Amino acid sequence: xxxxxxxxxxxxxxxxxxxxxxxxxxxxxxxxxxxxxxxxxxxxxxxxxxxxxxxxxxxxxxxxxxxxxxxxxxxxxxxxxxxxxxxxxxxxxxxxxxxxxxxxxxxxxxxxxxxxxxxxxxxxxxxxxxxxxxxxxxxxxxxxxxxxxxxxxxxxxxxxxxxxxxxxxxxxxxxxxxxxxxxxxxxxxxxxxxxxxxxxxxxxxxxxxxxxxxxxxxxxxxxxxxxxxxxxxxxxxxxxxxxxxxxxxxxxxxxxxxxxxxxxxxxx
Length: 268
Known about the structure:
The chain is α+β, with helices and mostly antiparallel strands. It is built from eight helices and seven strands. A hairpin with a 5-residue loop joins strand 3 and strand 4 (189-192).
């Protein structure tokens, strides 16, 4: 049908964007190593396509395929079924400019599919949030009973793993240099400066509340374990492996407290 090729072009653009977002979301500490391996393998292969026409055409097809694959994985994860035969038929009909529905109808189906996906995602997050709140409360209650664990007035819990004797951050606006790793209650690690091979530097008022309060308790040379209630972490926000209302566990090593001038030089 007319304008079907326009719909395909839009799909291709969305595909490339989706792929880029997925790559950013899935970025891990092992990415550099795996990239080097992939590049080494790629370097041994002969380029399949030699002309720009072939490469551009392949890129268009591959981007659509990757977009569809990413979408189908999301649907499967949420229990939404798909029909592979209909999917392939739609792709072929689109290429032939002979779709069985008008562009307006296709757009309506796509909107309905997007709405279903969003509804399922919202349901999953709501369920995860309720579970996280319950598990977080229980974990904090048990953790508070452990020897060496201190609970502050705000509800933040910390344990001194190594006590340093350096300076402490003077205020919530202090800039600190730290090594750290963060995990969920089930032990899943979601972030680590150790894995990246370099410490992080940032002002304490630009991180989650639990960090702002907790790191100010430390002295340079110290290493603490923080158990941070969800309302002092990301709250209802989901980010990466962190689902809504997650209680988080961080091990933080305070390497330095930087004066404003030093912090600016480090950032540059």
